[in-house]
Amino acid sequence: MISLRNVEKFYEAGATKNYVLRRINLDVAEGEFISVMGPSGSGKSTLLHVIGMHDTAWGGEYFLDGQPVHKLGKKERAELRNKTIGFVFQSYHLLDHLTVYENLEIPLSYRDTAKRERQSVVADALDRFHIVGKKDLYPTQLSGGQQQLVGVARALIASPKLLLADEPTGNLHSSQGKEIMELFKRLNDEGTTIIQVTHSEQNATYGSRIVKLEDGWIVNN
Amino acid sequence: MSTLWRDLRYGIRMLGKSPGFSAVVVFSLALGIGANVSIFTIVNALLLRPLAAARPQELAAVYTSDYSGPLYGTSSYPDYLDFRARAQSFDGLVAYAPHSVVMTTNGAQPERLQGEYVSGNYFDVFGVRAAQGRTFNAEEDREAGAHPVVVLSQRFWQKRFDSAPDLIGKQIVLSNQSFTVIGVAPPQWRGMVRGLGVDFWMPMAMEPIINPGSEMLTSRGSRGLFIMGRLRPGVTLEQARAEFNVIAGQQREAYTQQWSNVRNEGRTITLLPESETRIMPQLRGAVLGFMGLLMAVVGLVLAVACANIAGLLLARATSRRREIAIRLALGASRARLMRQLLTESLLLSLVGGALGILVALWATDLLLKFRPPFGVTLALDLGLDARVLGFTLLTAIITGLAFGLAPAVQATKPELVPALKDEGAAGGYRRSRLRSLLVVAQVAVSLLLLIGSGLFLRSLMNANAIDPGFNPQNMLLVDVELRDYKEAQGVSFYQQLLERVRALPGVSAASWSGELPLQLQGSRRGVRFEGYQPQPGEDMEVAFSSAGPEYFRTMGITLLRGRDFSERDTAGAPGVVVINEALARRYFPGQDALGRHLSISGPKGPFLEIVGIARDGKYWTLGEEARPFMTFPLLQNYEGAATLMIRTEGDPQSLVSPVRGEIRTLDQNVLVDSAKTMTEHMGLALLPARVAGSVLGVFGLVALVLASIGIYGVVAFYVGQRTREFGIRVALGAQAGDILGLVLKEGMLIVAVGVALGLAGAFAVTRLLSSFLYGISPGDPLTFTSVSLLLVGVALLACLVPARRATKVDPMVALRYE
Questions:
Q1: A123 CB near a chain B CB, below 8 Å?
Q2: Is residue B8 part of a domain?
Q3: Who has the most CB within 10 Å: A200, B266, B486, B718?
């Protein structure tokens, strides 16, 4: 599903280049659940954002679902991303001024989904994640675990094939973290490909494979 | 549609979440848009709104050129009748002439009314139907004095008669003649002179009854009528113009003397469409220029408000950086987000526009309460109409886009990854630079407006110091009108009243003036001078006035040669005149003008002897160059209205009541129009400078307040962004003064650039004002320096508040916070 070939990213500081990612070669098959691990500053999050197409300034080749991302224009990348990828953030990143319902609805509205269909999809998601009773609450009225649950529900709302999660349990206490990881496991069992960045060895065990990064290099794959 | 609705709903919610921000923005917009709508309402009322006649696009005005040349002169009644008989291109031609009468009612003070003499077809041709009763029929304008009927204006009927339903058919007394009220005009019909209130209309055939001895209806030389007509269906204005060219030729052939101008060429007839005659054509250029200047000034104020709000939105965009990044990460396109941000801006500007209408209604209401020192009522229709509402909507939309676009563009291109990782803003400097540029622009524009205002205020001070050629202190002016007096009676009244007033305690001198100086305009008449041969086409019209005995002594005007007028300069005595130095220099160069003669009745005389030469003074405006001027004795050149001029020993106001008492003793039906001091009267001459100074001053201050908010915002934002840095600096040993200096430097650098640009702009623009300024150069260093210092002072205060906050940063809190 994903194939990265010699992907590199660096920041220029005067005449020198500080590499964040070095010659990354990585293949991810459909249905895999990969955990990316490594010390702080090793390039984990950067790799995730490159795969998630939030970061566009990199070199090398990147194929997603058969499409050469490195050759696509801005608009095509956005279309491919909207069709294929859902993203879960460490800090949840829910929109504070929108209710739970509206937070779930917003990715659909950006994909020009018709109103009736939006209502039906959001209702299903609320039901599936057992948050129907919270639909009119604002994010600040939820616990951290509940917020991340909404974050995951929102990432999945447009039925992406690939779920990217950047330390999804980083801000949660252990029991909430466990719930989220079990949810990921279930989703993966249902067919969603997942790549998560994590510091936790325990969370990594939920995945099928671990990719370790150090100083921008993949040191074990 | 549903996404627009969602954007709108979300926008309302976002603005509701930050009420302080929304209130500041809406308030600024209400001021900025309100100022623009106020001025546009006046432009609309003066220039854009068509005459309230049926099908105004079919109307055209007919002007006969003046003797001295200008194209848009008035016409005589015999000419009007000729035009009416010959012009085939018009369905109907009407004539009208503004005039005033005195209404007397039993037991009440006489009142002055403004009205129009009109031809009998006036209302029919304009397609105006009476709201009550009826309008004139053709019969009522046929025979002089036969039909004393009058139609009242709606406003006058409401104000003076409490909208009495039974007034139709009743009598009112105008200039001692009884008139039957036959109708009331509809409210939208306010007469032909835009901006001035009309109380009544009467048939032109009544004019000789109101003004006995007047030749208006009989003399081809008496030109006081305005003419307007309705073009026949299918006839173009060009065709009508061609026809009137022929008519002008025929008139010249038939009446060569009356149809020749100063160059002995034929007079011309000019036709203009109604749309170009809403303001008298000779004033149109000046009015357009003044209104254009006002629109530019309020446009600048709105631009300052926009820059200010754009600055606030940019600051807000920084705090919404995370939200925007999440939306982009969730799949929103940039266009979509820009649309949402612009929806919020437009929402703000539309609310601001709605409140701006309220500001405009308040401002225009205030304007209508203003009583200009002309003795007339302002009656502009300053109501809202589709044009004003359309202008407001358009202004609000353009404003919303203007202040919303740059922040929307900036906000929707955040660096996504750092924003999502909750890292500090990279590229923040670029954003704050745009904000700084906006504040620079605000400072520059405020300085420009304030310098303009400062120049006018200094000019006003200079104007007050201009020597008008007479002593304006301790002088009371009382306007008296003797409408129904024969000449002998009037002269006797003038003489008797002068005797009585001179005998009042506190009066040191008194005289009469036929036309007060410094009324912004005056009268001129053709003159022949003994021994002076005019060049072909030379303008031989000279400004003049008439005055009573001891006029020059009363006014404090120095007589260089000869004598003042005396009680003996009456109709039976030899004709005399006093001239000024400028006249003597021009028409009697190198000669002694005293004892020489001039004629105002053509080359054959009678000739008047020059008995005095007065020092040059200011006659029409304070800014004028010395103009030739002559003064005739009022008792030899009788006028039914004159101003009593009283030189007092103490406060002139204390004599108002005794003088009115003396007038009533002589005749209680004499209309005393107004009593004012000479310094009050001179306010009229200073009105243009005062209006310009006040307008620029008010708008300049509004711009300064907005710019101060902008400076404060930028500096406060800068302090907020660098709290951690200040904490570290303090931890490393920086003193409060170091931090204060750092912040002030940042703020005042922006101010300095703005001031430099504002000064450069002001140097370029104020040159355009030079013709309006008295005794001051448009680049006056004192004004430029003092206004700049004022602005820098205010800006320093605006910087000081956040700068002091920066000095109070607790390093522990600041570092922990990060």
A1: no
A2: yes
A3: B718
The bridge status of strand B132-133 relative to strand B629-633 is unpaired
Cα–Cα dist B369/B371, whole Å = 6
Measured in angstroms, the CA of B19 and the nearest CA of chain A are apart by: 14
CA distance B424 to B418: 7
Tell me which residue in B330, B336, B422 faces A107 most closely, judged by beta carbons: B330
Closest CA to B421 of A221, A136, A167: A167
Nearest to A93 among B17, B326, B332 (CB): B326
Total structural domains in chain B? 4
**Same structural domain, B34 and B62:** no
State phi, psi for A68 to the nearest 5 degrees. -80, 95
Confidence (pTM) = 0.73
pLDDT per residue as tens digits for the range A74-111 = 889 988 988 999 999 888 888 888 899 999 998 898 88
B736-765 and B687-721 helices cross at what angle (nearest 10)?
150
**Fold designation for A2-220:** Rossmann fold (3.40.50)
* Domain around B547: 483-669
In a domain, B219, yes or no: yes
Shared domain check, B750 and B663: no
In whole angstroms, what is the distance from residue B271 CA to residue B239 CA? Answer: 11
Q: How many CB atoms lie within 10 A of CB B59?
A: 24
Sheet with A67-68, side-by-side order of all strands: A16-28, A2-13, A59-64, A67-68
CA–CA separation, B477 and B646 (whole Å): 6
CB B522 within 8 A of CB B619: yes
CA distances in angstroms from B772 to B448, B621, B767, B776, B779, listed in the order given: 17, 11, 10, 10, 13
Distance from CA of B734 to the nearest CA of A (A): 29
Question: pLDDT tens, A19-74?
Answer: 999 999 999 999 999 999 999 889 998 999 999 988 888 999 999 999 999 999 98
CA pair distance A35, A45, nearest whole angstrom: 12
How would you classify the pairing of strands B629-633 and B541-547? parallel
ipTM over 0.85: no
